[in-house]
Design goal:
mainly alpha, five-stranded mixed β-sheet, 553 residues, single chain, 5% strand, 3 domains
Length: 553
Amino acid sequence: MKNKHALIIIICIYALSALALNLVFDLTISNSYQRAITAGSIAQLLHNEPGKLTDITALKAYFIDGHAHYKLFSGISDWQPLQVILLTAVFFFFGINTFSILLVPLAITILTLIYLYRLALDNYHRENVATLTILLVGLSTLFLYESASLLLETGITLFTTMTIFYFARYLKSRTSRSFYLAALSLGLGLLYHIQMAFVLPAMCIVFLWKTPLKPFFTTPKNYRMLAIACCIILTVLIPFIVREIVLTHEGISVFKTRAATRVNYLYEHTVTKPGFVTANDFEFQNPLPWYKKELILNRYLLSYLQKAVVTFSAFFFNWILAPLAFFWLFARRKKCNDAELIILLFCITTLSIFTLEGLLPRYVIPAAILFTTFAAPGAYLLPKKVFKPVLALVIAILFIQAGLFFERIYQGEHVQSMQHDYDTTAAYILNTTTGNFTVITTRVYQMAFAVMRRDIERRAYVEMVPFNQTSFTTMLEGNFSTPELLAGTSLPYPTSRPPVRYVIVHEELETGALQGTADYNVRDYLEHYPHANLAKIIPSAFPNATTWIYSIN
């Protein structure tokens, strides 16, 4: 009972800390804002114009107009729909604001810790081991970074943990209820992100190994159980299936194309460039030398050895936990139980695929977190004399790693989580401009979300500063083209725009999202552009996060 009270206290403190951390820092990245824009636009539709839901023509026009204004389609077509569905519900009931955007990831993080606790308790039957498990997981740097941030990997971790938890219970008890709950968890995970499929090989291998196949397949009720489980998964996936049918009909589905591209990356390594990059380099690209930036830009086409360095440096990002995990796996006398076998095979699958394909390091978070669950029992396997000193050292190093990580975010060195003041910027351009207008910005999705929240009359059109100077000049003159996503489709996408009134430049992004990737410096260009004037400087409470607003006459 004492440990259950400790569990509640740890989770409450952790939730409040994660919330405070994400209210101080903006840890949400561009891809997350894509989904937030979509969810916010749908929530606004449900609030203000629900009648359009029954009018296909009006609904299509609403989304096309939404993309012209705020780049709405990226959040629909590029990602699995579950997070958008959850965000839409939160925005509908609590409004589109900074606090609401944190609720979904925070709830997912809390559920992840609860299910990791339950999994550890089932595996080791000791509450102190389960409590230490969630403490070590919670202090893991990338898990803490995503704790209340609108990213995807914590959700994948949650649904993978749930699937393993219920499937291991099924293997132990052979009850259909556990099998159905595992199927439900798997379906929700697939609706959240396709990477959830990585757990399937591990489940199949352990099932075939642990199940007497002849009795299983000669029992009629097992066929009914399999059929019901398949129906559960398909029912959960209905939103994704419907979305793909609609988007494929309109010619804007990217699922098949992206899947084919990912498969090709498994055996393509056509770029020959010297050197290596680590997971830490991916997080803090801005101060990097150019050769490392080139490796990052070509991450899917590097040699397998170069990809392996990225993959394993991400997997062992919190390296201090690895000795304890390996100590548990190799120093004990007992064999691995079913859940542990699934976790190990899941980790092997994840590491193998990303070593072959290439990745962004955070993709490995689900496997790394589940591997971390071996560290707590490993710690309790140590001699009593060294247990407390070792545990204190481990926790201290985890705190130091996390502290250094967030200190670099504070300094403005993180490639995505930058601390510019988007809200003040959006309020300024809306309050100082009458009528419809176009704004070009170096941070398109963050600015689009900040503008969308306030732009009740839909006056603003938000466009991205291009990487090519000639294209930028063309945009300033009022010439816009159909975005690549909608090119070649039958959708009547408007390329005409109101006059460009502002260009918004964010510090550290003057030469591209990855410094030096554009062929010009946008601030230098505007300083010499005859129709541009520096209208406003928006400071930030953080270093290297100034925003410059140029008016275009």
